[in-house]
């Protein structure tokens, strides 16, 4: 499952990436049917723009919720996403690329010394070269995802 997320919903795109979904974020123009890509069976377009709502496309989801976390809950509920469909923290939260594990030694000098000292697992985004590790933010993200799927 993939998502094309309207730019004002950038926080939602980030949360979809936290879930492991391919979530491309860009400005969508409400200038009629030709302004959007053609329908794709596996891709959903997410927006809050009223003019786009009138297109009545089955792949277009009009998001009503305001906060990114409740928007995520709305999307997962509408699409009946099951927990087994998630691959948490497998994508770069900034550029959407899949993360790749790297040997610990390759993280040395690229992360703060205390991070390198306390962590064994590191992941790299091959596009933007950012490094990720299961830090203190991980439990809060996983708890939010768990709570979102329960509701």
> By helix and strand content, what is the structural category?
alpha/beta
- What distance lies between the first and last C-alpha atoms, to the nearest angstrom? 21 Å
List unreliable stretches of 5+ residues: none
Average pLDDT: 91
Radius of gyration equals 17 Å
Global morphology: elongated
How are the strands of the biggest sheet laid out side by side? 2-1-3-4
Following the backbone from N to C, one meets helices and strands in this order, namely EHEEHEHEHHEEH
How would you describe this protein?
With 151 residues, this protein is an alpha/beta fold. The chain folds into two domains: 2-85, Rossmann fold; 99-150, no CATH class. 31% of the residues lie in helices and 19% in strands. The strands form two sheets. Strands 2-1-3-4 form a four-stranded parallel sheet. A three-stranded antiparallel sheet has the order 5-6-7. The model has no long low-confidence stretch (mean pLDDT 91).
């Amino acid at each position: 499952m993939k998502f094309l997320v309207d730019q004002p919903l950038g926080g939602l795109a980030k949360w979809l990436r936290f879930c492991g979904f391919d979530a491309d974020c860009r400005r969508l123009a409400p200038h009629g049917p030709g302004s959007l890509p053609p329908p794709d069976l596996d891709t959903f377009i997410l927006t809050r723009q009223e003019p786009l709502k009138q297109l009545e496309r089955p792949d277009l989801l009009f998001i009503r919720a305001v906060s990114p976390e409740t928007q995520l809950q709305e999307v997962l509920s509408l699409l009946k996403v099951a927990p087994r469909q998630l691959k948490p923290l497998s994508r770069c939260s900034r550029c959407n690329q899949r993360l790749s594990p790297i040997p610990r030694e390759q993280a040395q000098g690229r992360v703060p010394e205390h991070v390198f000292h306390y962590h064994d697992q590191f992941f790299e985004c091959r596009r933007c070269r950012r490094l990720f590790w299961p830090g203190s933010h991980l439990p809060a993200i996983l708890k939010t995802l768990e709570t979102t799927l329960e509701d």
